[in-house]
Amino acid sequence: MEKLRRVLSGQDDEEQGLTSQVLDSSTLSFSTRVKWFAICFASGIVCSILGTAMLWLPGAGTKLFAVFYTLGNIAALASTCFLMGPVKQLKKMFEPTRLIVTIVMLVSYIFSVFENNEA
In degrees, to the nearest 5, what angle opens at C-alpha 103 toward C-alphas 100 and 108? Predict the structure, then answer.
């Protein structure tokens, strides 16, 4: 359990140097990280469900769907930043094995919001 707490709090042995020193001075406690993870993840789920419900609205339903669903996905993705830290999250997202998926995901988010707002 202690190893899990170290990994989730960003105190893993992989991070060395100035970045880890800056992050160590501004870390949150483990219980605070878990609470904000739950809040952010739950709000992401609520936004995604709300966006799906917006599909049945006449007129601007697809625009609202795109906005709320994208915000929900971003909130759910950002919730993991509370567990592992934003720098480590970004490093893992942009690893060579995940780079293509990350780029496709980010481009999809951008196109889903801006393409529906121009129509």
Answer: 125
Using a 10 angstrom Cβ sphere, with 0-12 exposed, 13-18 middle and 19 or more buried, the burial of residue 82 is buried
pLDDT, mean of residues 20-40: 73
In this prediction the pTM is 0.65
Domain ranges of the chain: 18-118
Q: How far apart (Å, rounded) are the C-alpha atoms in residues 95 and 15?
A: 15
C-alpha 6: how far from its chain's center?
A: 20
Geometric angle at alpha carbon 106, from 103 and 112, rounded to 5°: 135
Q: What is the DSSP letter of 12?
A: -
pLDDT at 88: 86
Closest alpha carbon to 54 in 34, 72, 40: 72
**pLDDT computed for residue 22 by the predictor:** 45
Question: Alpha-carbon distance 33 to 36, whole Å?
Answer: 5
Does residue 5 contact residue 29 with C-beta atoms inside 8 Å? no
Q: What DSSP line would sit under 85-103, residue for residue?
A: -HHHHHHHHTSTTTHHHHH
